[in-house]
Backbone:
């Protein structure tokens, strides 16, 4: 086990500015040693602003750094497998952004190397550690809404102007980098959290389409699923609707009530029971990945466990693949 975790970041882009990067220096027994970005000036700027001793534009310098014993990969998913496999083969623990990889096959390769080398592979599904989402799990696990019957999720919004006018420069709309469209980026959080609530999804059927015509990947998706626990679920995602149709909601319905939450707006959790509505407001940490990063560090130190590892995260890649596969075949 490691006493002090010295991190290197591969891909210190926007997601690392507030959501994750600063947390590595805030968790006890953890510090950032070096950051990498292909644009050297941006890497140098990041290091200066975040009090990081070293910076580079070469990923190999992070992977082979003699002081670094853990690596955070925050590049687009298409490069996760190559970097993660290289890092694990070098004996460095890996914390990788979600989704775990751009494809299920790449995720399988990553998990196989982790198992073969014994090097842990963590995945940044941080909703498993946020207070609002944990409140939902508590209400369900304590039987407050009775036996869970089904879950219904809807994530619907208009296309952003840059998604229409700057398609070629948006990696989330390039399947070789993202795995698919915006569905892969956003629905992965939701599907992983439902896996955390109800266990693995044992069967799923989905259809995907491009209805807006702004880009080539899917923009509207529908899915039906059943979990190992017997809970059934459905979801609809569309990223090209009118503003009036915008919606971000997950409803978990049981025999004695209903829990409602948002996936991305972080509004209060609502419990509907016996004709009353009870709200549970909550505050997220300043750096939203802090709680999960703390778990990662404590796991590497041998004093705790982490709730988001490769063996659970790979299931979300498999489910997303099954939902959209007909669109790409």
Residues:
């Amino acid at each position: 086990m490691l006493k002090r975790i010295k991190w290197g970041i591969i891909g210190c882009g926007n997601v690392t500015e507030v959501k994750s990067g600063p947390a590595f220096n805030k968790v006890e027994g953890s510090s950032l040693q070096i950051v990498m970005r292909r644009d050297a000036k941006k890497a140098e700027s990041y290091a200066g602003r975040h009090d990081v001793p070293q910076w580079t534009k070469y990923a190999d310098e992070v992977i082979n750094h003699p002081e670094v014993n853990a690596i955070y990969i925050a590049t687009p998913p298409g490069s996760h497998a190559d970097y993660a496999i290289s890092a694990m083969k070098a004996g460095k623990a890996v914390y990788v952004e979600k989704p775990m990889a751009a494809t299920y096959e790449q995720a399988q390769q990553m998990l196989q190397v982790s198992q073969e080398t014994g090097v842990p592979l963590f995945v940044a599904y941080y909703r498993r550690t946020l207070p609002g989402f944990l409140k939902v799990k508590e209400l369900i696990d304590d039987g407050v809404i009775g036996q869970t019957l089904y879950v219904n999720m809807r994530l619907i919004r208009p296309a952003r102007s840059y998604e229409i006018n700057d398609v070629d420069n948006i990696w989330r709309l390039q399947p070789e980098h993202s795995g698919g469209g915006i569905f892969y980026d956003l629905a992965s959080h939701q599907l992983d959290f439902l896996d955390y609530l109800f266990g693995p999804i044992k069967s799923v059927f989905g259809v995907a389409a491009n209805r807006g015509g702004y880009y080539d990947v899917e923009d509207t998706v529908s899915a039906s699923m059943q979990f190992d626990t017997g809970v059934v679920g459905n979801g609809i995602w569309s990223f090209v609707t009118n503003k009036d149709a915008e919606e971000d909601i997950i409803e978990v319905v049981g025999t004695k009530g209903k829990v409602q939450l948002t996936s991305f707006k972080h509004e209060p959790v609502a419990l509907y029971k016996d004709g009353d509505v009870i709200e549970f407001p909550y505050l997220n940490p300043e750096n939203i990945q802090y709680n999960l990063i703390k778990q990662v560090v404590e796991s590497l130190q041998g004093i705790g466990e982490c709730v988001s590892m490769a063996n659970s995260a790979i299931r979300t890649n498999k489910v997303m693949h099954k939902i959209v596969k007909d669109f790409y075949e």
Q: What stands out?
A: The chain has two domains: 5-125+288-307, 131-283. The chain has a mean pLDDT of 98. Residues 5-125+288-307 form a domain with the Rossmann fold fold (CATH 3.40.50.720).
